[in-house]
Structure formats: C-alpha cells, structure tokens
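Q: Could you write out the predicted structure for this multi-component system? I'm mainly interested in how the pieces pack against one another.
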Amino acid sequence: MEADKKDSARGTKTANEIILESISDGVFTVDHNWRIMSFNRAAEEITGTPRHEAIGRYCWEVFRSNMCEGDCALKRTMKEGKSFVSSSTYIINNRQQRVPIAVSTSPLKNEEGEILGGVETFRDHSLVEELRRELTGNFQAGDMVSRSKAMKKIFSILPQVAESDSTVLIDGETGTGKELMASALHNLSLRKDEPFVAINCGALPDNLLESELFGYKAGAFTGADKDKPGLFQAAGGGTILLDEIGDTSSAFQVRLLRVLEEKEFQPLGSVEKIKTNTRIIAATNRDLGEMVENGDFRRDLFYRINIIRFQLPPLKDRMEDVPLLVERFIKKMNHIKGRAVSQVSTEAMGLLLGHDYPGNIRELENIIEHGFVLCSEREIEISHLPAYLLQPQVTKSTPQSSIEELVRLTEEETIIAALKNNHYNRLAAAKELGIHKSTLFRKLKKYHIILPGFDGRSGRTD
Amino acid sequence: MHVAITVWGSRISPVFDAAQTLLVAEIRDKEIVDQRIIGFQAGIFNGLMRLLEELDVQVLICGALCEGPVRSLELQGIEVIPFMTGEVDKILELYAGGKDLTECTMPGCGRAHRRCCRGLNV
C-alpha cells in the first residue's frame, strides 16, 4: 500500500516535470535566498541560459529583467505570500537583445502549506507586443497617445515614415511631445536597435554645438587634450534629434546642410572627413517657413530638412486627449512613486478640461504630479490641483499676451476681410494684403480659416 | 585610470537600464586609490555619456546591456565589460589586479569573456 502511494507520487512528479518541459512559458523556482532551484526548457530558450548554468544562481543574474532592481514581482510575492499575475516588463537575453515579457509569480508551497520559495512564470511577448502595436497604432505610437483626428492621421503614417529613412521635421509648440515623436520614429524604424540621441541646438553656442555634434581632434583648441567623438559618431546607424533647429546660427546651418547632403562631416581640427549613416530628425517650436521668408533661416536647409513634416497640434486643439493623457500620467506616476491613485474626480476632470494649457502636455503632466504630491486618497480632487487652475485664466490679460492676441485677431480679421473682398480668390487676397500667396496659405492654416468650396476665380466649385 | 561600475547595493546592478548608481574608482599601479558613488539615470543615454566623459572614465563594468548602447560607448572610447555579476569589491579588485573576470560573468554568457554573448548562438 505504502509502496503504491510512493509510486503514484513519483508518477505525478514525473508527469509534472514533463508538463513543465513541454509548455511554452518559461518557469523557474527560487528558494528563500533567491537561488534558482528549477528552470524549464522554455526558460532556457527565452533567456538564452542553459539550465545547468542557471540552477543555483541568483535569479537576477539569469532573468536580467529591468524589474529586478526595484519593483520585483517575486519579491512582493515572497513578502506578501500572494500571487501576482501578468506584469509587463522586459529582460535582456544573452544575445544582448531586449525581450518583452509578461510575468506572473506565486509562492511555492509544500503540502503542509509551508512557503519554500517562489515560482515565476514568464511568457515571451515579442509577438504580442508587435500585434498590440499594430492594433493600438491607431491611437498610440511609441509613448504617445491620442484620440484626436490630427494625431491619428500622424500615427497612421508614422510607420511608413519611420521606415523611409528620410529626414523629418517636427514642429509644434513647447511641450507638445516633439522628442517623444522623434523617439517613436526611431523605435519604429529599422534603426531601433541603434542609439537614439537628442541635442537641444538652441541651448549651446555654435562652437560647443559643433564639437558636441561632430567631435574634435586632440589639439583642435586649448583644452582639447584628446580626441572626442561627437554625437553623430555616438549615434552611429541610429537617429539624432536636433531640437530647436530654428535657434541655430546661419553658419551652423551651412555646416549641417553639408552633412545632410554629403553624408559626411569633419570633426573640429581634423583634415579627414568621416562618413555618417545617422538619420536626422529636426524639431522646432518656431515657424520655419516664416523664418525663411524673413531671412532668419536658410532656405536651402529648410527644403533639405522639410522632406516630411509633422505638425504637432497644441493640447488646447485636442482636448479630447486630456482624459487619455491623465490616465497615462496616473499610471506612470503610480509606477514611479509606488502609489495606487486610481483617477481624478469628475469635478477635477472638469477643471482640467477647462484649462487652455499654454505649456501643453508637459503642463498637464506637471499638474498631475502636483496632484500626486497632495493627494493621499485614491482619487485626485480639485483641492489637490494647482491653485492657478481655479482662478480665472489671466494669461490673456497680461500686457504681452494682449498685444499678441490683438495682433493675432487683427491679422485674422484682415485676412478674412481681404478674402471676402476678393470673393475668396486667394491670389487676389494675397495681393491686396501685400503678401506672397504661400504666406497667405500658411496664415490660413495658422488661424484655421476655413475657405468655402469655390475659389473665387471662375465660380466653379471644388 | 578611472573605472565605472553600475552598482546595486554591494553588487553589480543586474540590468544596466535600471541602474541608478555608479561607482567610479581610480586605479593606479594596480591599486584602487579612490572610490566614489554617483547617482545617474541610465535612461538618458547622452547624459550618461557626458557624465562618463566628465569623470574621465575609460572602462565601464556593468550587468546586462543591449548591443546598441555598447557600441555607442565604445565609439566614445570607453571599454565596456557587460554581463558581469557579483560583489563590486571583488570585481574591482580582480580588474585592478589585471586578473581574469570570467568567473564574474553572468550565467549563459561565459564563453566570450568581455564580449559576452556577442555573436553567440545558443
């Protein structure tokens, strides 16, 4: 009888081992000292670590997840004696690749209910991530989310633009997510495994900017005691974002144009040119077209970088995104700060929807962070939001803004009047206003002036 | 020479991307003459490169790291020794003494010391 029981237990154990070996989820168990006790075949495949090397080692040495150091699911399980299901994270396999995974953890108990350690199961989510990206690509690209029509249009063409390798110009007010967009373009491109580097061109004087971008040779100037490679070399076959390109000097623009055209650059103090394969993305919060017209930006460089242009709308023009962004920021801050805030109250959301966000998405993120600091409950209330949101918006009544607003309104009204005077004939309206036709079109776009179907020339309709 | 190690308590940080602390040691004549701890954000890559340059770091010893950033750091003239694991003091001592670091390599990455896993077919 006893022998039968033993045989049956042995049989169950063997069956369990066979099952563990045949499933596609990676499974490993650890003891109380975080040493790996068992490691199945799928775990070997996903991590790239053979079982005989994994057994007995610390789990973080084998698993190599970005959660190991901070928010370790297994640690929480062992501490609280509870199971956790499907946290998304990534590991770095032994081929130096990032593998997205979903992780579940449970305490490992014996028949008496005594905790022997923990079990971690993980699933390779590379394919799921790829599919999810395709499905949610409609309102999500990289770290950007939006339900607005204008942004959805951008998201829909983003993968093609990312793959194209062409130079891209991103323009939008400060805080609209230009760097996120550049990063999304990089991550969707074939260059995604290469570095993405960003530099704010407006923050540096010419010489420093050139040495940062192109590097220098030892002896190029006082203090240059050894060769220093620039960001173009650091980016290699990756992507470089040149932010605030509109704030660069004409001399720098000439150098940059040469790099774009010849695909090579010369480090300071060097006589030799270095070939570059880095993709360039330029970003600005200024109207480069207008700057070209006024002679403040080189026309040749403008046309060279303006191959594909994305105009990121300010947040006030896509208020439908506020709830989505609020949800995103709450998730992000819960993760960073280890909190469990669930949402903003209806009243607080009303207030957030009534604000016009001169600082755009960055301002909204700061508002939510402010809410996190003051909120100790599960819901962010009006009282947790910055006081200026409760006051009537005064920005428009400051002297500078009134003048700007007045100029804006006057210009808009003058354009509409000129169009009406000329029966919506754009060329005639531009002549009357004393501006070029292309300037008129730009201003029509800027002020969102909608033209009627007929063009005023022949009475035909479009 | 200056050597930087991404640290997690007394150990090497398992994943470079999640590391928040850098130990920078100065080695002269096989002796560690100075050590200091600096906070950093691995996620801001060019910020890190600038920091390593400012600290005159020639060698970076770290845990798991993807191939792209390794190449960028190498282009910057920094020797990268990724996929290392274990107690920081021990590794630093071995490195300063010019000794072999194979025993400190992460499991599954042992066959190509200092060039862990690159081109390895498992």
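A: Regarding packing and overall arrangement: The first helix of chain B runs from residue 45 to 54.
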